[in-house]
Write a structure and sequence with these properties.
By secondary structure, this protein is an alpha/beta fold. It is built from seven helices and ten strands.
């Protein structure tokens, strides 16, 4: 039997913003393959293209040229609604700023992706409580974000990302607003979900210590992949 198709495959991907004198090439002929179960860190200086790459990988944007396959589907040929369904069913997101709804409890925030998927109330509550338990927040489900620390808010965000059992978590600077101790706690959580539940992790970070948790490090420079190899912390 042949090797399984990759989870993510980028082929000759370019992204251009603007026209004329304002034209900016954010990505230039990028090739990338990510297989199920990998933990990949993406690094690079400001303007290197790493954030643009993350937006494309998360199906939040589309390339100007090239092809992107996700689980074999050609993302470029999907409609906007089809891309939204792909995100909803296969991708969990974790952002630097947590992106929690301020007037909703931790439980309600975690339930949100399940509401979009049409999951019934009883099952939704059970799945959300289980996800909060997995991130160490059982008993805090009734708290609003304002009643939680930054680290706890990011745990809620991770619970929201995993509650729908995604194929991949896209984590954009997930420790950027946290101190070192809380950052390590968040990275330990992501590592556990990758190792124990097989969730693929793709993480943008500017912190070398956090990138060392990954198996693989992809470094962007001037819109291209400058280096792609094992992360320093990889076994």
């Amino acid at each position: 039997m042949g090797e399984a198709a990759p989870l993510i495959s980028l082929s000759c991907i370019s992204k251009v913003y603007g026209t004329g004198a304002a034209r900016v090439r954010a990505l230039s002929e990028v090739d990338m393959t990510i297989r199920e179960g990998e933990f990949v860190a993406i690094m690079g200086p400001s303007g290197s293209g790493k954030s643009t790459a993350m937006n494309l990988l998360g199906c939040l944007d589309t390339p100007t040229d090239g092809t992107y396959h996700f689980l074999g589907a050609d993302v470029g040929k999907l409609t906007r609604d089809q891309r939204a369904l792909l995100r909803r069913n296969y991708i969990g997101f974790v952002f630097q700023g947590y992106n929690l709804l301020a007037r909703r409890t931790a439980l309600e925030n975690v339930e949100l992706p399940l509401i979009y998927k049409g999951v019934g109330a009883a099952e939704r509550r059970a799945l959300a409580l289980d996800a909060l338990d997995k991130v160490g927040l059982r008993g805090r489900e009734g708290h609003d974000p304002s009643e939680l620390s930054g680290g706890q808010q990011q745990r809620v965000a991770i619970a929201r990302a995993i509650v729908g059992r995604p194929a991949v978590i896209m984590a954009d600077e997930p420790t950027g607003n946290l101190d070192t101790a809380r950052s390590r706690e968040i990275m330990d959580l992501l590592t556990r979900f990758n190792r124990d539940e097989g969730i693929t992790i793709v993480m943008v970070t500017h912190e070398t210590e956090m990138a060392a948790y990954a198996h693989r490090l992809i470094h962007f420079l001037d819109g291209r992949i400058e280096n792609d190899g094992p992360a320093k912390g990889a076994a």
